[in-house]
Amino acid sequence: MTNTKVIIHDLGGEYDAVFEAKCDRVISADGKYAPCKGCFGCWTKHPAECSMKDALHQACRVIGRADELVIVTRSLYGEYSPAVKNVLDRAIGTSTPFSTYRGRQMHHTLRYGKHELWKVIVCGDITDEEKETFRYRAERNAVNDGYERSEVVFIRDISELEELL
Fold first, then answer.
1. 139 phi and psi, to 5 degrees?
2. Which one of 57, 90, 112, 141 has the largest count of C-beta atoms within 10 Å of its C-beta?
3. pTM for the whole thing?
4. Percentage of residues in the chain with pLDDT exceeding 70?
5. pLDDT value at 103 more than 80
6. Which DSSP letter does residue 116 get?
7. Could you tell me if residue 77 is left (phi over 0), alpha (psi between -120 and 50 degrees) or otherwise beta?
8. CATH code for the domain in which residue 25 is found
9. What total number of domains does the chain contain?
10. Looking at residue 25, what is its pLDDT?
């Protein structure tokens, strides 16, 4: 069985080729798609498939099948950029509307099972408080989406990026 690696990034199309050489799929958070409308159709009506027919139509399936998810984002006060957050919102169908306990906490059941690594690479200048927020967010996202572990790496310059993938 092969490991599937997906990279979500907000750095612009000029980075797609670099990322494609390092993974199985790239999702460019370029903002050229609609935000999640909260219809929950990807949960119930047409599981893991968004009703909006744009670049993120199959995002649930792509992200849900990833053993390793790498998110490359600029920081917005210790959170994902709006474009990356939009991609993650559109991938809610990676889970189901049913609930279960994982790690003594209630979470939605996973549509695609367990995964290995939720990795976030944060680009730019960031405060210590924002770093803590990012670490906490990544850890909670990893638990919620069934990842065994999370990792957050902070870089000041994009030139440091390639060696981290």
1. -60, -45
2. 90
3. 0.94
4. 99
5. no
6. E
7. left
8. 3.40.50.360
9. 1
10. 96
